[in-house]
Amino acid sequence: EVYFKNLSKQKQKEVMEKNGNNHKLRVCVATCNRADYSKLAPIMFGIKAEPQFFELDVVVLGSHLIDDYGNTYRMIEQDDFDIHTRLHTIVRGEDEAAMVESVGLALVKLPDVLNRLKPDIMIVHGDRFDALALATSAALMNIRILHIEGGEVSGTIDDSIRHAITKLAHYHVCCTRSAEQHLIAMCEDHDRILLAGCPSYDKLLSAKNKDYMSVIRMWLGEDVKTRDYIVALQHPVTTDIKHSIKMFELTLDALISFNKRTLVLFPNVDAGDKEMVRVMRKKGIEHHPNFRAVKHVPFDQFIQLVAHAGCMIGNSSCGVREVGAFGTPVINLGTRQTGRETGENVLHVRDADTQDKILHALQLQFGKQYPCSKIYGDGNAVPRILKFLKSIDLKEPLQKKFCFPPVKDNISQDIDHILETQSALAVDLGGTNLRVAVVSMKGEIVKKYTQLNPKTYEERLELILKMCVEAASEAVNVNCRILGVGISTGGRVNPREGIVLHSTKLIQEWSSVDLRTPISDALHLPVWVDNDGNCAALAERKFGHGKGIENFVTLITGTGIGGGIVHQHELIHGSSFCAAELGHIVVSLDGPECLCGSQGCIEAYASGIALQREAKKLHDEDLLLVEGMSMKKEEVVSAAHLIQAAKLGNTKAESILRTAGTALGLGVVNILHTMNPSLVILSGVLASHYVNAVKDVIKQQALSSVKNVDVVVSNLADPALLGAASLVLDYTTRRIY
């Protein structure tokens, strides 16, 4: 055994020498309660998995060691971590003075521990009073501090403690772009800030599909079904204890009236927690048949419980942070989380003077399913944090430097472990091909994947998921942070629900299809879906000629004719999501038959299919080919052949193209007289062949007040993918689309 241990040490030494680093980073992780351990544990596992780079010391203090709160240090031991030191630091009491005395007791005990451990860096999480004692001790003893989840805004005294720890910390790991900007505004060195996401997301994003029914039955009973129970977790607000206890009473009254099975967790160790427990016992919660009151639930099991709950209620940060990853409805009570970034699954009840307001919120939220949100992480935080730790140079001066105003306005860094680009997964469902791309905020297509579009619904959805998973994985490697998925598809789409209502004939088995739910569930990302014409208009609004234009119309000239209308900077969908079906504007009562079943539509004249139809007629009559053209026997006649023939002087081909351009121009005139846009953008492969004809028709047929409208050809190479991406990039910060 000794021999193999020595051999292992020798191998570790060789790895470190190869990397040019002979010093292992000694990391002290101090955990104070069940909540911060759920964030710190993934980092601890990561550190433990790389012994060639790190030495891990674990210090446990605070409520972990109190029986009333479940002796939660045991879960650290069950995770196979060696606890170096246990510090009893909680002074029993029910007021603010007890918290102050607990901080003082921790400050008395910590110096001896830190003197013995001599860590290179201490990892401190969050905004608890215990964490303030840890950061103060480490800072005064010249130990580098890495603060997790700094820069966030919530409410109560927690904000002050969190920001105080930020000023003591040397390095910062934040979860959101807003938190990063807050840290910069607080004069922290941008080069020492890592936007990594929340470490707990690394575990919870892979946890939902595990065996959850046994967990639900263990904590709530054998007869409970998924989405048919509530998880309640409420803490005292230390800046207004009386009001928070009153709200807790109203919450329990509302839950009793709502009459659903409910799991109630005991509150944190804070001033007022004992009074909240007395309220629970006064109302008989521990013996009520609908309630299960527990001191602690292991994080792995807690994830399963909230992921499959009908609703979560309370004021825990978990409700506004982690639960959003599952789309579980949340009712956030009071002011404790005021200022937190939230997904659309969170309904706020800021102040409740009766139980009716809370009861009404329960009736609104219970049993709903929202799109999954990844505001706080994408499941890759720990690798980023470990890379960040390895980059720390212990030879750098310990003294902090503050970057006073003017504040840097750049949002990404040159250092590779900080540099990440906000991006979208864009999906384009065409009649022939299925394409998925990673698109940056600036409209750059970073990575693109193309496959033939399958003919059946099952195969198509399976391929979409496979390509999206592959693209999302590759996005991490190219430092892109995926904010969501945007899907552009043919047919009529309900973008509010993410459902394809009716498909075009080019895409089979594609009607009444819910795209949002399966893709959001599989990728844990918000999903937006819209018609390809609307997406083309959005692409122009964000990246093309429509940028900054209040009113404009986009016409797509390709296999079919489609489009999108932007009015007062907003896309028009119409009452039944049928707006901007511009290809089906009728320009002749006795014109050729259209695929929609009508006659004389623009699409029947000017689409690629219409031109191909006319080209075949000419070819069958031996009137298509002219000098300079040739076709192989097996070659299919297409619109491209008609265009080539017209360029080479084929008068019949020229006439067909002229008629098509005139039909399109008449349609544009109708649009000008109806919507009066200031710009018309022609997009698609046929746009350049039609633009002059459209301008001529406008001069001849339009009213004088609209004759001067600008008609331009799109300069976007891939409007469908860019439009799908803009669905995400434009709307990820909005509550409702």
TrEMBL record:
Pathway assignment:
Amino-sugar metabolism; N-acetylneuraminate biosynthesis
Any one GO cellular component localisation term in the record: cytosol
Which domain of life does this protein belong to? Eukaryota
Positions annotated to bind Zn(2+): 584, 594, 596, 601
What are the protein's UniProt keywords?
Allosteric enzyme, ATP-binding, Cytoplasm, Hydrolase, Kinase, Metal-binding, Multifunctional enzyme, Nucleotide-binding, Phosphoprotein, Transferase, Zinc
The catalytic activity of this protein is classed by the Enzyme Commission as 2.7.1.60, 3.2.1.183
Which GO terms fall under molecular function for this chain's record?
ATP binding; hydrolase activity, hydrolyzing O-glycosyl compounds; metal ion binding; N-acylmannosamine kinase activity; UDP-N-acetylglucosamine 2-epimerase activity
Indicate whether ATP-binding appears among the record's keywords. Answer: yes
**Active site, renumbered:** 532
Q: Report the residue ranges that make up the UDP-N-acetylglucosamine 2-epimerase domain in this protein.
A: 53-390
**Subcellular compartments:** Cytoplasm, Cytosol
Enumerate the catalysed reactions.
UDP-N-acetyl-alpha-D-glucosamine + H2O = aldehydo-N-acetyl-D-mannosamine + UDP + H(+); an N-acyl-D-mannosamine + ATP = an N-acyl-D-mannosamine 6-phosphate + ADP + H(+)
GO biological process terms, semicolon-separated: UDP-N-acetylglucosamine metabolic process
Q: Per UniProt, where does an N-acyl-D-mannosamine bind?
A: 492, 504, 532, 581, 584, 603
Record-linked Pfam families: Epimerase_2, ROK
Q: Which InterPro entries match?
A: ATPase_NBD, ROK, UDP-GlcNAc_Epase, UDP_GlcNAc_Epimerase_2_dom
In its keyword annotation, does this UniProt entry include ATP-binding?
yes
Task: Name the protein family.
Answer: In the C-terminal section; belongs to the ROK (NagC/XylR) family. In the N-terminal section; belongs to the UDP-N-acetylglucosamine 2-epimerase family.
Its quaternary structure? Answer: Homodimer. Homotetramer. Homohexamer. The hexameric form exhibits both enzyme activities, whereas the dimeric form only catalyzes the phosphorylation of N-acyl-D-mannosamine.
PANTHER family membership: BIFUNCTIONAL UDP-N-ACETYLGLUCOSAMINE 2-EPIMERASE_N-ACETYLMANNOSAMINE KINASE, ROK (REPRESSOR, ORF, KINASE) FAMILY
Protein name (database record)? Bifunctional UDP-N-acetylglucosamine 2-epimerase/N-acetylmannosamine kinase
Q: List the source organism.
A: Lophotis ruficrista
